[in-house]
Amino acid sequence: MIIKRESIAVSFKQLKLTTILQHVLLILMGVIAIFPLYWMIISSFKNEAEIFTASFFPKDPTFTNYIYAFSEIPIAKMMLNSFIVAILLTVFQLGTSILSAYALVRWKFKGSFFIYSIISLSWLIPIQVIMIPNYVLINQMGLNEKLLGIIIPLSVSTFAILALYQGFKAFPTALIEAAILEGESDFGLLTKIILPNLRSTIASLGVLLFISGWNEYLWPMLITTNMENAPIQIGLRSFVNSDTNLWGSLMAATTISSLPILIIYFILRRHIIDSFVKFGMK
Amino acid sequence: MSKIIETKINPTLSNNIESVKKKRKKVNVKPYVYLLPAVILLGIWMYRPLLTTFQLAFYQWSLVPGTTPVPVGWENFLRLFANKDFGISIYNTIFYTIGLLPFSIVIPILLAVATHNMKGRMKNVYRALFFIPLILAPVSVGAIWRWLFHPSNGLVNITLLDLGIIDQNIAFFSDPIFAKWLILFITGWKMIGFSTIMFSSALTGINRDYYEAVSLDGASRFQTFKDITLPLLSPMIMFMITMSILFSSQWTFAYIDILTSGGPFGTSTNIYYEMYKHGFTNLDVGLSSAAAILFFIVFSLITLGLNQMTKKFAFNDN
């Protein structure tokens, strides 16, 4: 480390230049990354005359776009639908993955390799390959246009199972053995020993599942056609496709639909990035 | 632990085989109970439909309730190969898959290396910025870019006109070449943050001793990058290549749908979008299923091959 510092000092001038260049490039990349978000927000506050100009800050900020967006599509109802879908998906996906990851780590049993393979290979099946049979089944069950029809087929997440499997595997066996000696039941072991100790892992996984549930779009689009029954993404999609050319209102609706995700991100930024590092993403 | 207890208990019960069997059964049934919800759900919503799609590939059906699928043998596959958009969609699938590699591998590695040795807050600020596109919903992202590239009033057209680079508005998403490249760029733009974070975490895992050893030798930054960083990143590079190839067609799907609907004249479509279009727009379940099965097999084989390559080529620092 000391040697490295010296060699840095030798080429100080050169390094300074490359460092500046590096920062310039990184800042440029950063601007490209967030500029569309910035443009979305300021467009939503521009008035009718200004929306078609390239001004980088609204001169006369207005809420008309928001008011119009709320009158044009049932935003409040669709936001509520999105919350229900995202929260229930998170709960179900966490539940199914906690139980199965626990079983795979806790016991050696016949067929465990087979079941593990079935679970991890399901990652290879894209939704476009299975959407038609699932669509037919949901229709037969009478669940089309229902939030449950969106939720049930997505209520197990391969990604969540594999992520928790890694987390459970790293759990210290000494703690488990101690609990077994004390006569803890298998379920008690899970709920009283493992889960409390892994709560930050599970919380960040939960946040990721909530975000991906909120952003879900192809499957909800097939199940719900009526806006009143649909999550916000579906409403936003048909608003975009309606060719109204009311881009101020469109950007207002887009801003509202992104707000929950952005708020969560700004509060839990470090957590979310860390958990992506830990789990990867589907 | 349970195993130890079991072997301790077993000898004392060994004269009563029946009870041993009972005991074992009791112990063994538990994991299956815990796994039941996930396995049943995967069975009903993943593997059952996969098999049904296999079956439907050999039937003609319009998805209309009350009608029954009619068996047609291999006809769907023949129609698929004769379909004019099928060739384009395969070509575009390859175009998007290869085109995404710079966004999922090259740029992220450079960004990860550039931010890795940075001290203090800037490192986290940069990473937090690169990450934002990833958490936004595909629909929102599509809407925003559609507005930025709007044919008459979008910022890009206004700016290009003002700068005198063009003298007429460009309808970007109605232009066969622009449409494809923009879909690629937007998908890539959204994925950069994810790969950057993955490579950053891989860099954190690299033992610092290597760097000190080569800095003693007076190696240049580029040499260090080439001789140390790249080989040690190779497992992660292989993993990200696999992910990128496997999922890029699903990532582009949303932007094809929202920005161009596959157009103009099918020039920006990909294979997954064709499945969707055949199934839910043209109500031709057989054709959609045939394409689905064909590409499910192709992608599985590619994944298998990449998996083998990872085992062979990735350098592991143990």
Model description:
The complex is a heterodimer of chains A (282) and B (318). Chain A has 282 residues and is mostly helical. Chain A folds into two domains: 2-66, no CATH class; 73-279, MetI-like fold (Orthogonal Bundle), CATH 1.10.3720.10. Chain A has helices at residues 2-10, 12-44, 64-72, 75-106, 112-121, 127-140, 147-151, 158-169, 173-181, 186-197, 199-215, 218-223, 232-241, 247-279. Chain A has 14 helices and no strands. Chain B is mainly α and 318 residues long. Chain B has a single domain, classed as MetI-like fold (Orthogonal Bundle), CATH 1.10.3720.10. Helices cover 77% and strands 1% of the residues of chain B. Chain B contains twelve helices and two strands, in the order ααββαααααααααα. Chain B has helices spanning 2-13, 17-56, 75-82, 84-116, 121-135, 138-148, 155-162, 176-204, 208-216, 221-260, 271-281, 285-313; strands at residues 59-60, 70-71. In chain B, strands 1-2 form a two-stranded antiparallel sheet. The longest helix of chain B has 40 residues, at 17-56. Chain B starts with a helix and ends in a 5-residue tail after the last helix. Chains A and B meet through helix 1, helix 2, helix 4, helix 5 and helix 6 of A and helix 1, helix 2, helix 4, helix 5 and helix 6 of B.
Q: Number of domains in the coordinates of chain A?
A: 2
CATH homologous superfamily heading of chain B:
MetI-like
CATH class of chain B: Mainly Alpha
Q: In this structure, how is the largest beta sheet of chain B organized?
A: 2 strands, antiparallel
Helix amount of chain B, in percent? over 70%
Largest sheet: spatial strand order of chain B: 1-2
Distance between the termini of chain B: 29 Å
- Give Rg of chain A in angstroms: 24 Å
Residue-averaged pLDDT of chain A, rounded?
A: 87
Which structural class best describes the helix and strand composition of chain A?
mainly alpha
N-to-C order of helices and strands of chain A: HHHHHHHHHHHHHH
Mind telling me which CATH architecture of the largest domain in chain A this is?
Orthogonal Bundle
* The first-level CATH class name of the largest domain in chain A: Mainly Alpha
* Main beta sheet of chain A: none
Q: Which term fits the overall shape of chain B?
A: globular
Query: How far from one another are the termini of chain A?
Result: 38 Å
- Radius of gyration of CA atoms of chain B, rounded to a whole number: 27 Å
Number of β-strand runs of chain A: 0
Percentage of residues in strands of chain A: under 5%
Mind telling me which CATH architecture of chain B this is?
A: Orthogonal Bundle
